[in-house]
Amino acid sequence: MTTTRAPAKGRLFEPSLLIGIVVVALLLVLSLFVGVYDIFGNDDGGEMFAITRIPRTIALVLAGAAMAMCGLVMQLLTQNRFVEPTTTGTTEWAGLGLLTVMILFPGASIMAKMGGAVTAAFIGTMIFFLFLRRVSLKASLTVPIVGIMLGAVVGAFSTFLALQTDMLQSLGIWFAGSFTSVLRGQYELLWIVAIVGALVFLIADRFTVAGLGEEIATNVGLNYNQIMLIGTGLIAIATGVVTVVVGNLPFLGLIVPNVVSMFRGDDLRSNLPWVALLGIAIVTICDLIGRTIIMPFEVPVSLILGVVGAVVFVALLLKQRRNA
Amino acid sequence: MISLSAVQKSYSSDVAIGPVDLKIPTGGITAMVGPNGAGKSTLLTMIGRLLGLDAGAIEIAGYDVASTASKDLAKIVSILRQENHFVTRLTVRQLVGFGRFPHSKGRLTRDDEEIISRSIDFLNLNELENRYLDQLSGGQRQRAYVAMVLAQETDHVLLDEPLNNLDMKHSAQMMQLLHKAARELGRTIVIVLHDINFAGHYADHICAVKDGKVIEFGTPAEIMTDEVLSRVFDTPVTVIDGPRGPLAVYY
User: Fold this and answer.
1) What parts of the sequence cross the membrane (chain A) (predicted)?
2) Strands B55-60 and B2-10
3) Are B141 and B152 in contact (CB under 8 A)?
4) pLDDT tens digit string along B127-163?
């Protein structure tokens, strides 16, 4: 009798996943062919295609999947549904790290900028996590409020620094996350987040166990502090890299995991493909809107994401109130 | 066997646990009782290595709790604390599956799945196994967590107030299930209880804790007396002969 029951281990591949993959693939094809430059009508169309459209589409895939995954891992580690890199200050810290490197070493390579952003993101996220453990905030809404406040303070400091050093414009460009400037030769480091994604997938079960709380995690023999550290490191790397290459992508890590959780629960391993797909889909749709809404100009994708994200955030709040 | 020797933990100058010397025999249910703030849960948490000791040593089946690797201890002892406020959206079956984590590290084998099924059946959760935890009542969720620690298949199971938030019917059911687990599965169960009458009826041993020290340890017959209970709980208690054994009346 017991053998006929569905196993506890969630299956990774289901027919519906295939549909998801096809839909996302169609969106990506659309992304390849939408733009002001007529790639069929011009002689150098193929060249332009390779310089901008392909890198841009790859960047959408990598950044979308990475930020969505980061949000999910963060939510498990903090046991809070409203947490993600932009509501915990992680993005602002990454921005501060980036700015610091740009000020101290004006001619710094993109690698150095990335190092600065990742380091600052790691430190900032650790501070936030340690703060959470120290005060053990139980109310779910206080946590993102504290995170947003912390982020605002760090952001204000960055603005001050930028004002003093005439970097305000660079900061503004960074803050408005956009895929406009993603070109061949400048985006390749984004592939680092693919490695992060693979690692998250490998240790997915540990993150899920950590999501059950420190005591249950310790009970089953998991080194809780170690997994917190690894998780923070992976989040910092992904956020730092995406920040440097693309910029700020608000709310993505918030919307995607919550929507996926609503339909499929919180088993991280079997959810990851869905989280990645939905992350890619949302970023791609927002980027397509940003590219076409005021053609031939572009609206930064962060603007569209901000609008969509704020609506979903409020909807989540209302839903939680109804359930409570 | 679980043995504590000269275990101490201090919070501030006036709040301290110990020194506690205690031997909890293998098999059966041992209930820890005592007034609020006596240190029952703290002791249990220290046995389950969720809290470090300031002095002394705790051994479970010969393994020193402080020096044995946590992942090895997870195969010897399991501990369940009072319910988490955050409810992860896992199904009952997925949750119970994580009880196999110490053995499978997440790669569940066929044997694991079978143990999971058995554990779910044992707690009468088979109808609910595909429901999400946040769709269950408090009592059902509590049972799911107990199924998880049973699926861990440790000889020693520590439960901190598993009857909290359970109504009369579910409290009685839970105690019957634990009794069955101790008898049929041969587990040594240590449980913190508030209701002395549950302890008197279901436990094989009762450990009375007061002011951070173990002041009595014995069989229910030895503990369920006017004198001992009045002293432990600091309130007049009369033990009468009920229809199913001794009954403490304290109101």
Assistant:
1) 12-37, 57-78, 90-108, 114-132, 139-161, 190-207, 227-260, 272-294, 300-318
2) antiparallel
3) no
4) 998 898 888 888 888 889 999 999 999 999 999 998 8
Does residue A92 fall inside a structural domain? yes
**Does any CB of chain A come closer than 8 Å to the CB of residue B88?**
yes
Task: Give B95 to chain A, closest Cα distance, Å.
Answer: 8
Q: Where are the domains of chain B?
A: 1-74+156-166+178-251, 77-153
Chains A and B form CB pairs within 8 A to the count of: 105
Q: Do residue B88 and residue A8 have CB atoms under 8 angstroms apart? A: no
> In this complex, which of B84, B90, B99 lies closest to A265 when CB atoms are compared?
B90
> Do B96 and A218 count as a contact with CB atoms less than 8 A apart?
no
Distance between CA B218 and CA B17 in Å, rounded?
A: 20
Say if the Cβ atoms of A206 and B88 lie within 8 Å: no
Examine residue A271 and state whether it is found in any structural domain, yes or no.
yes
Q: What is the pTM of this model?
A: 0.86
Residue-averaged pLDDT of chain B: 89
Cβ contact (<8 Å) for B73 and A223? no
User: Domains in chain A: how many in total?
Assistant: 1
**Considering the domain B1-74+156-166+178-251 in this protein, what is its CATH number?**
3.40.50.300
Instruction: Name, in order, each residue with C-beta under 8 angstroms of A225's C-beta and a sequence gap of 6 or more.
Output: none
